[in-house]
Amino acid sequence: MAESYDVAQYLLDRANIQEAAELMYMNFDRSLFEKLISDVLNDQIVVDYTDLFGGQPSTHSSAELAGQWKGLKAQMSNAQHQISSITPELPQPGSRHLPATAKAIANGHVLIKSHKDNIIENRGRMYLDLVKRTDMTGNPWRIAGIKAEMVWERGSWEQLRKDFEEHTKA
Predict the structure, then answer these.
(1) pLDDT tens, 110-169?
(2) Torsion from C-alpha of 48, 150, 83, 73, nearest 10 degrees
(3) DSSP-based three-state secondary structure for 56
(4) Is the pLDDT at 1 greater than 50, yes or no?
(5) How far apart are alpha carbons 32 and 40 in whole angstroms?
(6) pTM
(7) Cys bridge to 149: 66, 97, 125, 163, which one at CB 3.0-4.6 A?
(8) Share of the chain above pLDDT 90, in %
(9) How far is residue 118's CA from residue 113's CA, in Å, rounded to a whole number?
(10) Which residues of 31-67 are buried (b: 16+ CB within 10 A; e: fewer)?
(11) Interatomic CA distance for residues 62 and 95, integer angstroms
(12) What distance in Å separates the CA atoms of residue 121 and residue 142, rounded to the nearest whole number?
């Protein structure tokens, strides 16, 4: 008889998915980029920030993405991401389907401050694709896809880019 998806496993998966989403940006804000690689990101991640910056979705290794984020964070005085209402899409307990992948949606609020004290603030939604890795200990859920959807923003990306460029030259 096939194993069924029980309540305990459902609740554990739900908590682990929520933790992965929270730790992705908590580790960014705290500059813990190695922990992003070891505890949060899948080996390959599809990033879709087209709603924020235009362009096309792109695929990165966890090390590449963490390296890009590390370079970006170094240009900032500080950053704070607040993630809320993290809602994983999982089968209900009793299902015969044991999930190996999942999706989640969350609300996000971001504050970024340049070294010249210019601030940009935005709110939006984050769509995540996750994979359940069975080849590791700890939280098995890893983020394999990120899509950001802007709802509103305040501040000037153009001014922040100028501040970042000046800081990089200094």
Answers:
(1) 999 988 888 889 999 999 999 999 998 899 999 999 999 999 999 887 887 888 788 777
(2) 60
(3) coil
(4) no
(5) 11
(6) 0.90
(7) 125
(8) 76
(9) 6
(10) ebbebbbebbbbeebebbbeeeeeeeeeebebeebbe
(11) 32
(12) 27
Best CA proximity match to 28, nearest among 103, 79, 90, 86:
79
What pLDDT, in 10s, does the model give residues 38-77?
Answer: 999 999 999 999 998 899 999 999 999 999 999 989 988 8
Residue with tokens 């000046």: 166
Token pair in block for residue 78: 């500080």
* Contacting residues for 17 by C-beta, under 8 A, at least 6 apart: 86, 88, 90, 102, 104, 128, 130, 141
Residue in 112, 37, 111, 40 with CA at minimum distance from that of residue 72: 112
How far is CA 79 from each of CA 60, 69, 99, 162, rounded to the nearest angstrom? 22, 12, 34, 17
For residues 13 and 141, give the distance between their C-alpha atoms in angstroms, rounded to a whole number.
Answer: 8
**How many Å separate Cα 153 from the centre of its chain?**
19
Q: Where are the alpha helices (DSSP H) in the chain?
A: 7-29, 33-35, 50-53, 62-74, 157-169
**141, 132 Cβ separation under 8 angstroms:** yes
For tokens 């029980």, the residue is: 6
The token duo for 115 is 């070294």
